[in-house]
Design a protein that fits this description.
The chain is α/β, with parallel strands linked by helices. It contains 14 helices and 13 strands. It binds ligand 3VV and (2R)-2-hydroxy-3-(phosphonooxy)propyl tetradecanoate. Pathway: Phospholipid metabolism; CDP-diacylglycerol biosynthesis; CDP-diacylglycerol from sn-glycerol 3-phosphate: step 2/3.
Length: 443
């Protein structure tokens, strides 16, 4: 008796109407599959050769042939490569593809019995946690994509078979796996929202690092060193990144940024994605206050330094205070605007954190107005806990300036309260009205 450990199974409800596939489904592939790959392919018994009825082909990928760690997607690839490539043309409608742990099948596999047709048919989420299709593999994959994948894989198969005559079997296997990566990546991007989440995040960081490599020499050419004017270069380099991540910005209140001279911009801080919104509206001669750790962020850190970003040590209030007092002086001397995140840290809890006092001390010290800018909540497209990063729209609302002329340190508390209340109600307002995710990846 062959004992299979619980594995993943995959189902293709093909709706195929050709006699050839009906044959394959009734058994001829089972032998090939089992012998070559460790597959059991079965189908619904009620399907006959001539009937134009949906056929479910279901493979079970166990660990009996030493492929213990093989991913179900690889198993799917094998199925395509060896059995289904020729029959895909016969598909008559999009094939919903689902992966799930089928405990009934696993139990039967453990006992060494074959999978009955009813158990073999792909099941759908019935709300039961154990049986539920994992969120990562629950999306329908369109027929044309599967066709493309199949053609790609069959082409790969030919290539690697040819190469195996000269380079040997192990390198052909390696090639096989290598060539499998691009379509699998596409399939994962298509089907797994968790994968999309990590992919987009990594892409964002990597892309910013690459852009920064470009930004460094450009900044040096423009200003010869650290200068607020370099922010123009950085701004123009970062502006396209929103398109790559599927984000859209809707900005209102542009007129409030027309204020002349230095001012302090304060905004809420949800994620490093805020940089994209910041670059959307960043006025000329404006730089930021940031935590000092950012300077160590490789090429991005160097770019930040070149852009004139003021780094503070949040853990040492006295240090931070003196750096900000110095910044107030520079603001006036060099006619610079400063962008501060008064929450002092990232926050995505659907509300604003209590503000720190530095930004208001800064504005009072420089006697410069405060311009609050509110970013709508990212929760309609970006959820860190749920690992969701869809495309979406972000509203940026620029609020009227708050004057600080004649104010002293005594007024800092009331200035802070006033700004907080204005921003909080604007945040709730823009977050409420923001359109829901315009991506298609929500479950
Ligand atoms: C193409 C290239 C591509 C490359 C990529 C491009 C790169 C991207 C480009 C650009 C990206 C830039 C993106 C940057 C994003 C970074 C964001 C961050 O890093 S957010 C974290 C840091 N930000 C802050 O922390 C806010 C500022 N913080 C403050 O202002 C705090 O107030 C701080 C640190 C100064 C002190 O914080 P406390 O935690 O100690 O708390 P408190 O209550 O505010 O202050 C304590 C006491 O100190 C007084 N105080 C504070 N500041 C004062 C001051 N300036 N003068 C006098 N007293 C002051 C206060 O009045 C308070 O005293 P009493 O309670 O009133 O007695
Ligand atoms: C090796 C690290 C590479 C990092 C590359 C990052 C590329 C994106 C550049 C955007 C910079 C945004 C910086 C930012 O948003 O920092 C977070 C702080 O505000 C708040 O931090 P925390 O939550 O208080 O620790």
């Amino acid at each position: 008796m062959m004992v299979q450990e619980p594995g993943w199974e995959f189902g293709l409800d093909t709706g195929v109407s050709t006699p050839t596939l009906a044959m394959s489904a009734t058994g001829s592939l089972v032998t090939t599959g089992s012998q070559d790959l460790g597959f059991n392919v079965s189908s619904e018994t009620r399907c006959s050769r001539q009937d134009r009825v949906p056929v479910s082909v279901l493979g079970h990928w166990g660990s009996n042939r030493g492929q213990r760690d093989e991913h179900p997607l690889l198993a799917l690839q094998h199925l395509y490569q060896h059995h289904l490539v020729w029959s895909i043309q016969g598909w008559t409608r999009p094939a919903p593809l689902s992966f799930q742990r089928n405990q009934q099948c696993e139990a039967q596999q453990m006992r060494g019995t074959s999978i009955p047709a009813a158990a073999a048919a792909p099941q759908h989420d019935d709300g039961d946690d154990d049986d539920a299709i994992p969120a990562t593999f629950s999306r329908d994959v369109p027929r044309w994509f599967l066709c493309l994948l199949a053609h790609f894989l069959s082409a790969t198969n030919t290539t690697t078979t040819t190469s195996s005559t000269t380079t040997g079997t192990s390198s052909s296997t390696r090639m096989d796996v290598l060539w499998t990566i691009p379509p699998l990546l596409l399939l994962l991007l298509w089907s797994s929202s968790t994968f999309v989440f990590y992919f987009k995040k990594c892409f964002y960081v990597a892309w910013m690092m690459c852009l920064a490599v470009l930004a460094i020499p450009l900044c040096l050419l423009k200003s010869g060193g650290r200068d607020v004017e370099n922010m123009r270069v950085i701004r123009s380099l970062v502006r396209h990144v929103k398109h790559l991540l599927g984000l859209r910005f809707e900005v209102s209140g542009w007129e409030h940024l027309q204020t002349k001279g230095p001012y302090v911009i304060i905004s809420n801080h949800q994620s490093s994605l805020d940089v994209l919104g910041l670059m959307e509206v960043l006025p000329d001669r404006c730089t930021m206050i940031a935590k000092k750790e950012l300077i160590y962020a490789g090429t991005v850190g160097i770019t930040c330094w070149l852009g004139g970003i003021v780094f503070i040590n949040r853990k040492k209030t006295s240090d931070a205070k003196s750096v900000m007092a110095e910044a107030a002086k520079t603001m006036l001397d060099d006619q610079i605007r400063l962008w501060v995140f008064p929450e002092g840290t990232r926050n995505q809890r659907g509300d604003l954190l209590p503000f720190k006092k530095g930004a208001f001390h800064l504005a009072v010290a420089a006697q410069a107005p405060i311009i609050p800018i509110v970013f709508s909540s990212y929760s309609n497209f970006y959820l860190r806990k749920e690992k969701q990063f869809n495309s979406g729209t972000i509203r940026l609302k620029i609020l009227p300036k708050i004057d600080t002329k004649g104010m002293t340190t005594e007024d800092v508390a009331s200035l802070l309260d006033k700004s907080f209340n204005l921003m909080r109600s604007a945040f709730l307002e823009v977050s409420d009205s923001v359109p829901q995710s315009n991506g298609t990846r929500c479950h």
